[in-house]
């Protein structure tokens, strides 16, 4: 078993060495045109020299500050560094070039129907900001970098949100955005794309779930309101008990309270005033009779 494992490891190591050596050979040969290629280049140079005043407009190209040009000569990338900004020279018969925009691009992720970890169906959309940091990789490694990034953003949104609960989805948007950005940036790095920012725009819940959550929130608010009202009544009863003890110690305090109540009623300009009489005053008349 040990010998089999060691032989397998040696085979894997040899395979990796062969692949790396083949890549190095391809890198070395990528800039070589061959004999026939050089013949075509020389013919193109002779054609430029013969028709110099006219071909100067075909040979000189301009790219803007936010653009770069990837030049292909006979189907091969001439240099591992893009041209620009400003003027650069191309051969009219053997060269063609592709302009690459380096500015930040934003696009909306269409609403995606996603099943969360706790089996709740939600509709989520977002926005992605990215830019091209390696023009050569964006041209040579992928056919359409912008379209591929959009499709990958949709699948990444589904994969990331499928591992989250509804509560995490509603409360931890920043963490989800950061996780999506890291996944997209790692996946698009071979394409020469840098994902700068990912944001979750809106989370749409089903109508039935919205009603259930609203009923739950309303019930919890009503329960808290009843608890607060009960606590207030308990504190008020304690205050009334203390006030009754004070009034019982001095009977004249009750008369002062009557006068204070009459003063408050008279300030409101009421036509009818109910004046309470103490029972002690009526007892004197009853004894007289």
Gyration radius over CA = 42 Å
Distance between the termini: 125 Å
Low-pLDDT residue spans: 1-30
Helix tally equals: 10
In which order are the strands of the major sheet placed? 3-2-5
Secondary structure category = alpha+beta
Q: Mean pLDDT across all residues, rounded?
A: 78
Give a count of the beta strands, DSSP E runs of length 2 or more.
8
H-E order: HHHEEEEEEEHHHHEHHH
Q: In percent terms, what proportion of residues is strand?
A: 15-25%
Main sheet specs? 3 strands, antiparallel
Share of helix, binned = 55-70%
Label the overall shape. rod-shaped
Describe the protein's architecture and organization.
- By secondary structure, the protein is α+β, with helices and mostly antiparallel strands.
- The protein has helices spanning 2-30, 34-50, 52-59, 135-140, 145-161, 166-171, 173-188, 207-249, 252-267, 279-288, and strands at 60-63, 67-73, 76-77, 86-89, 95-101, 105-115, 121-132, 193-204.
- Helices cover 58% and strands 20% of the residues.
- A hairpin with a 2-residue loop joins β2 and β3.
- The protein starts with a helix and ends with a helix.
- Residues 1-30 have low confidence and may be disordered.
């Amino acid at each position: 078993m040990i010998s089999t494992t060691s032989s397998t490891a040696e085979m894997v190591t040899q395979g990796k060495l062969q692949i790396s050596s083949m890549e190095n050979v391809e890198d070395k040969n990528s800039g070589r045109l061959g004999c026939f290629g050089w013949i075509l280049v020389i013919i193109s140079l002779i054609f430029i020299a013969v028709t110099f005043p006219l071909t100067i407009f075909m040979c000189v190209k301009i790219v803007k500050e936010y653009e770069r040009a990837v030049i292909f000569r006979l189907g091969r990338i001439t240099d591992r560094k893009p041209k620009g900004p400003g003027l650069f020279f191309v051969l009219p018969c053997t060269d063609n070039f592709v302009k690459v925009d380096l500015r930040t691009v934003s696009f909306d992720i269409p609403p995606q129907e996603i099943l969360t970890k706790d089996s709740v169906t939600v509709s989520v959309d977002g926005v992605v900001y990215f830019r091209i940091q390696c023009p050569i990789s964006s041209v040579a490694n992928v056919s359409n970098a912008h379209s591929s990034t959009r499709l990958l953003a949709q699948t990444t949104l589904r994969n990331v949100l499928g591992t989250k609960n509804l509560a995490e989805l509603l409360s931890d948007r920043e963490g989800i955005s950061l996780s999506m950005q890291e996944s997209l940036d790692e996946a698009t790095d071979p394409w020469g794309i840098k994902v700068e920012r990912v944001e979750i725009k809106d989370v749409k819940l089903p109508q039935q779930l919205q009603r259930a959550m609203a009923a739950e929130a309303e019930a919890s608010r009503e329960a808290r309101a009843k608890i607060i009202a009960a606590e207030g009544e308990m504190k008020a009863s304690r205050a009334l008990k203390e006030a009754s003890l004070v009034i019982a110690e001095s009977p004249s305090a009750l008369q002062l309270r009557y006068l204070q109540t009459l003063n408050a009623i008279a300030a409101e300009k009421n036509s009818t005033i109910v004046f309470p009489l103490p029972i002690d005053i009526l007892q004197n008349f009853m004894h007289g009779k």
